[in-house]
Amino acid sequence: MTSNGSETSPSTGSGASRESPRPDRNKFRHKGPIILRGRELQRSTSDQRFLEPEVVAGRAPGDFTRTDPWRVLRIQSEFVDGFDTLARLGPAISVFGSARIQESSAEYAMAREVGQELGKAGYTVITGGGPGVMEAANRGAHDVQASSVGLGIELPHEQGMNPYIDLGINFRYFFVRKTMFAKYSQGFIVLPGGFGTMDELFESLTLVQTGKMTRFPVVLMGGKFWAPLVDWIKDSLVREGMISPEDLDLLYVTDSPSEAVTVMREAHERRNEELRAKARRAGSDFDPEEFLEGDAP
Ligand SMILES: C/C(=C\CNc1ncnc2c1ncn2[C@@H]1O[C@H](COP(=O)(O)O)[C@@H](O)[C@H]1O)CO
């Protein structure tokens, strides 16, 4: 320690003639369990090395056959870690939305209220663990002492997980992370956002439309923001026969956090009733709530 309380590097000591600049502790990125700072930040991400090995490492096409089969083991371990950690969450709702909105914005306030309402209704709040809407929703859960989870992603310029998360997993691969949102949530609430949010919204709609997930509510929050997209879906996708008119029912638009949570709760209860009835018909006393009961943090 120096007299002003700051640390000195052991290699330079005080008064050393060639002092290297102090590393910025806020600039870092995770690579699985590994943390990268300084020049290590220039390393590519796992998704980049997997999807574009020829760009990242200049590998010849034949090299894929030797490297990708081994990569499967790492992908597999990421699924195992995710399943192992999240299976005990209990009922949870994922909240998606822009990584870029500021704390002073109306969207931040809305997302925070959504997190609070979900928490009060007994749900764990799952987000992408980043800033903006994600931080606000996690913060809302934290406000009401509800369980708050972040499923982060290794990005070239990671900002770190927001501070309102009790349980965080940092994934290397986007597709593994997306599986976790779908598998461990009972519904999705989507606030305004950009490409990342659209990707998450349309993937969930596709999973429901194709019957991969049933009785899975998707609520869009912020009517003004979503109106042009919903109009385009009606005027182009339905009119051109690209989707069925009933597919519009997959979307519920509201500005009210408590209404969004009511939609989640009602769909969840309907689904539980159906599962109980199915179990009774099969002579079983299976209870979906017991199945979901977790020891969430
Ligand atoms: C780009 C910026 C921060 C990146 N940090 C993110 N951390 C975690 N999850 C993220 C991040 N960025 C996007 N996501 C996921 O996509 C959705 C938001 O994307 P959008 O393009 O901002 O709509 C979000 O729900 C996350 O799951 C800071 O500028």
From TrEMBL:
Residues 1-34, 274-297 are annotated as: Disordered. GO terms for cellular component: cytosol. Keywords: Cytokinin biosynthesis, Hydrolase. One of its GO terms (biological process) is cytokinin biosynthetic process. Its EC number is 3.2.2.n1. The keyword Ion transport does not apply. Signal peptide: none annotated. It comes from the Bacteria. It holds the Pfam family Lysine_decarbox. One of its GO terms (molecular function) is cytokinin riboside 5'-monophosphate phosphoribohydrolase activity. It catalyses: N(6)-(dimethylallyl)adenosine 5'-phosphate + H2O = N(6)-dimethylallyladenine + D-ribose 5-phosphate; 9-ribosyl-trans-zeatin 5'-phosphate + H2O = trans-zeatin + D-ribose 5-phosphate. Residues 286-297 have a biased composition (Acidic residues). Residues 1-17 have a biased composition (Polar residues). Coiled coil: none annotated. It is an enzyme of class 3 (hydrolase). Belongs to the LOG family. This is Cytokinin riboside 5'-monophosphate phosphoribohydrolase.
